[in-house]
Structure formats: C-alpha cells, structure tokens
Amino acid sequence: MPDVDRDRAWLLTVDGAPQSYVDLDAPEHLEFEYVRRLAHVLDCAAGPGAALDLLHLGGGALTLPRYAAAARPGSRQTVVEFDAALVDLVAEHLPLAAGAEVTVHAADARAWLGQAPAASADVLVADVFGGSRVPAQLTSVEYAREAARVLRPGGLYAVNLADGAPFAFLKAQLANFAEAFGELALIAEPAVLRGRRFGNAVLLASDSALPVAALARRCAGDPFPARVESGAALARFMRGGAAVPDAAAVASPEPPQGAFSLG
Predict the structure, then answer these.
(1) pTM for this predicted structure
(2) Which region, left, alpha or beta, applies to residue 144 given φ > 0 means left and ψ of -120 to 50 means alpha?
(3) Which end of the chain is more exposed for a tag (fewer CB within 10 A), N or C?
C-alpha cells in the first residue's frame, strides 16, 4: 500500500520501496537521480520556459508534472496512473500548485495510449512500474509504435527502465523503439552501463535529432553523473537485441534484493 512520510518534503513509498519524492515548497528540487535525468530531457525538449503538451504514463506523486509546471508555465499535462488509491492519496495530501494545468486519470496506461489522439503530445514520459517491474504490456514493439503515433513530428519519448548485465531486457527495448523511431539515446550511470550493477536507464526516442550534447552536459553535472550513449556507441551496446511483439513481451527483470530500497 502507498505510504507518505509527512514533513516539509514528502517521500512516497510503495511496499517499502521509494516511489516518489516531493517538496511542495520547491517543485524544481528533484531528489531521485533518474527523475533529474527525465527533467533534463524536459529542459532540452524546447527553448527555456516554452510551454509543452506533455503526456505522462505513470504518475506517482506527480513529481515530474510539478517540475514541468514550474519550469514551463502554461504547459498542458495529462497524467495516467493505474493505481486509483494512489491518485486519491496524492490529491488529498499533495495538492498541485494553483494554476498547474495537470489532469490526472486513474486508468491503464496501454489502454489510454491506444485511444489517445494521433500527434497530440510534444513529449511522452513513461515511468510505469507494477511493484518494481515495468509491466509486459509496455515492453513490446506495438507499444513503441503507439507511442510514436501519439507524438507530434519532432516529438520526444522518454522512459524510465531498469536492468543489469547482460541487458537482455534493455537491448530488446532499444530494438523495439528502433523499429518506431529514427533516433535513440540512453542515459545511465557508467557503473550501470558497464554491467557492474543493476540500475535505472532512461531511453530516449524521436523522429528528429536528439539534444545529445545538451543532455550530456547536464547529466555530467549531476551529483551522480550519468553518460548519454547514442550513435555508434549505442549500436554496439544494443547488439544482439531483437524487437519483441505483444505475444512475447515480458515484464522487466526483478531487481536484486535491496536494489531500490531505502536502505
């Protein structure tokens, strides 16, 4: 069940694992490194302060929508969160700032995406976990094509994933999105990319050139620096990966014990 530690800053946990961190007084403060990387993607998606149409699959405590509302006022944001109890808990205890144009729906992410209008979003962010695993219905090539359909020309897809060596899951995800988009990149800590530990990786996809250099500068300056892999280096990393259809899709791997715990 969701739980919230009540203080000036709020930590949401699900079954003992940290799920979201929110500072109601400072929405641009991002505690979790993978969320910082997703925020860097938003920062580089358009000119400073420009409003965007954002679709978030997975909501948690709405950390990233709060950030986007503060950093890009006027952005129209739709959030799809499967856990209706979590939606209610967040609405009661963690209200959005006045003026934030964020609409939250308690619904299945894949079903919602399938009904979303074509070319309706500038950026699509996916951060969907059933417990500690990405559900299988969000790991197929058909899902990747649905994401491409919903994005506008030049739009940007970003997804939070988790895997470890030998990266069978992550390689398959890259292969899926290579079928639907012309440009890919991957953001992760060097220790994760080298297979030294299990961890988060942010996959990016677009039909236009990705802001790789700008993202690399931002990610290198984080407290836990990350690399941005693209081009030939990413092609080498994903070697051996094959796209996975709905019929063969599986959830992301179970993390090793303690990988995402509060310690």
Answers:
(1) 0.93
(2) alpha
(3) C
